[in-house]
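The passage that follows is intended for readers who have already worked through the single-chain material. We present the inputs for a multi-component assembly, then the predicted structure in tokenized form, and finally a short commentary. You are encouraged to pause after the input and sketch how you expect the pieces to fit together before reading on.
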Amino acid sequence: MTNLNSLRIKLPLSVALTLAAIGLVLGLLAQYNGLAFDEALQLESTLGRLATWMAQQSEKEPEEIRSPLAQYADNWATELGEQALDPTVLFNAISQMRSGYLGLIALLLLFALAAHFARPLAARKLYLAALLLLDALLFLIPAIEGSHVLSLLLLALLAVLAALALSPGKMSRATGFFLALSLLMLGWEASKSFADAVNYKILLPQANWTYQVSPSLDEALMSLEAGELDVVIADRKDLDDLMPPHPPRQGTGNTEHTDENLQYRNLRYMKTLDRGQGLAFLPIAPAFPGRLSLAARAQDAQRFSAVRAIMDRRIAAVAGDFADVKFLNLPRNLVLLDLKILNDLNLPHFQMIAEAFLQPARRNGEFLLLRILSDAGFYTFSEAIFGFLFGALLGFALGSVFAHSRLLERGLLPYVVASQTVPILAIAPMVVIWLGASQLSVAVIAAYLTFFPVTINTLRGLGSPAPAQVELMRSYAASRWTIMWKLRFPAALPYIFTALKVSATASVVGAIIGELPSGIGAGLGRAILDFSSDYSMISTPKLWASIVMAAAVGILFFVTVSLAERFALRSHVRALDLG
Amino acid sequence: MSAEREVVIAAQGIHKVFNPGAHEEVIALQDINLEARAGEFISLVGPSGCGKSTLMRLIGDLLQPSAGELLVNGKPPRAARLDRDYGMVFQAATLYDWRSVSKNVQLPLEVMGYAKAERQKRAAEMLEMVELGAFANHYPWQLSGGMQQRVSIARALAFDPAILLMDEPFGALDEFTRERMNLELLRIWKQTGKTIVFVTHSISEAVFLSGRIVVMSARPGRITKIVDNNLPYPRDFKTRSEPAYHALVSEVRELLRDAVGSDGAEGP
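Having made your guess, compare it with the prediction:
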């Protein structure tokens, strides 16, 4: 196959793919044409949900607002002369941004098409820009049943990916990286679409819940107190703020609020609730989400200890609330057969993860999860840095001592190796017992993972110079110290940095693990533990978000060390290329 | 003509035994007697395993003799090493990868505590001498093998040692480069007037370069004969086609053949 032949096929193919991509992007734009703001496609998109939250936050008194985004919304409302920001203002802005965004992508693709004939080498950059813009949309556009928007987006992505791969010129490292990343994301979303096609379910429809909605939780609970209702279904954390649990709290350890000053002293919420709704062993969908709980009058509490017990009772929920929209609202089905692979629980859409970032961790919470996780990530990062520095210094000291003393190396190295065969999860509680539950313990635990590779590579690196190089130094009558600093240490640097890069990521892992037995609540370890405590559709995207944040912290650390390496080894160019 | 010059290296009855007492005991050198005078160019030739490198390392105090007396500039080799009397060049250039060419040449000066300005001045001079002045800021891996070896020679001469010990310095180079390097070395030797002990397994190289050729035999390593080479300096590429040169090469080859034995299995 000659270049000429492949060129003859490549160009028409590229042109066809680009035209198809432009058509798909315009099709995407058309899907939104005249779409009302309360359509799921708008409301459930990442930005749509953010807009809803911002509008809600702007209703608060100005001095109560603490999040910068909410502040922004409030300022906007003030500018418009309103008390609170109307969501439609935000949705209008989103709509305009979307049109501009999609128009920009179409324009880039058009330029890429033209570039094929004018400046072929520029085509690749234009495709890459369009690809990145399309990738970003995967984080914004929700998967809605019956909507073609996501499918159109995936097809457009595929067309641009293919055009990028076919475009002339050499593939740069960054282009290759984003090409592979986009392919991965496309594969992820496409496999979900594929799974949707093969998912198989046999259902036996059951009667719907009969329930009434109240405009606010307070009104619902007042009706409950008055005996007009039997049960209120609401967010467990909200109920916990308002009433004592059933069964009552053990001991007096909880000083946060005493039961006496609670608002609804005659009501109880179910602290331990039997959530099994099964008939024999068949589950009923939707399952009662872990976040929701039941509120009942104190004298009835005994009777409502299981979800099953509320069938045919007078139930209420708050209108528009999660319990109303996502649980009670849905038809109840007895699941006879469920062949669901790659469902939204085990593999959520990218949009759901992005949305989790841009939503408060708690309903109506005042900070977005992004802010909370960023704070947690920074906290964990600071612990990891201390652990890393401590471990790296210890590792370097041990490696240097071992390199100069055969006896110590023979005697102590086995223990260094053995230390790494003990699981960190077993060591971590011991460190907390010795040093107390503090950030120091976490740093020590991170250092425990960090020092080992540095020790081994320092030892190896200091021993790496060829005998002739050492003899050369001896012929200059150089002292041991001079040989160390002029020869052994510079020769060991590439080895040490290789270890430091391993250690950088390991120290983040160590810090996260160390936070668990230390009971430190401000870091990522706690967040991961929190969001994995109930495996529901509410927590799982947040768990993914925490994982993304943990990975980001690790990557940030790795990149920092890599940059330091690049600076320190700028003369060791050959060694760098080998590594 | 060299008889009036002072004796720089004096070896008397040198023995070197590796792993004495163990069953893998090796007698590397036996009864070595050798004298080198200031400004002399001496080559050690012999089959592999004849101990020529060992002898050079004994002189340079990288090894210590098992018996015999060795004096360098009238001192034991250790004292000479501590006085920085040796410049060494090995078969591999052993340049430090992370140092530029100039910094490599400055290395011994740094170790010996020369001032920065002095270091830079000397390095520039030395690189000029080996005709690599334009490569001062290059890194070793950017140079060819022959250039690297020239840097290595510049480094060995940078601190002006009395004696240059060279252990098969051109052994890894191709024939063409090696012959050019031989000419270079003669030029540098003439310019600096150093005493050079040169280990090689190439007969033609030894004959071309040196004033005296120490022919050694293996197992145990001993000196077969010390051949005086009276080919006049300066020598150039024409020297290699002179009958006297060929006669000397033949003589050394005969000596080596006798040394190895009739089977010639370990000929050079």
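Commentary: Confidence is low (pLDDT under 50) at residues 575-579 of chain A. The interface with chain B takes residues 466, 468-469, 471-478, 482, 486-487, 490-491, 493, 569, 571-575 of chain A (CB under 8 Å). How closely did your sketch match?
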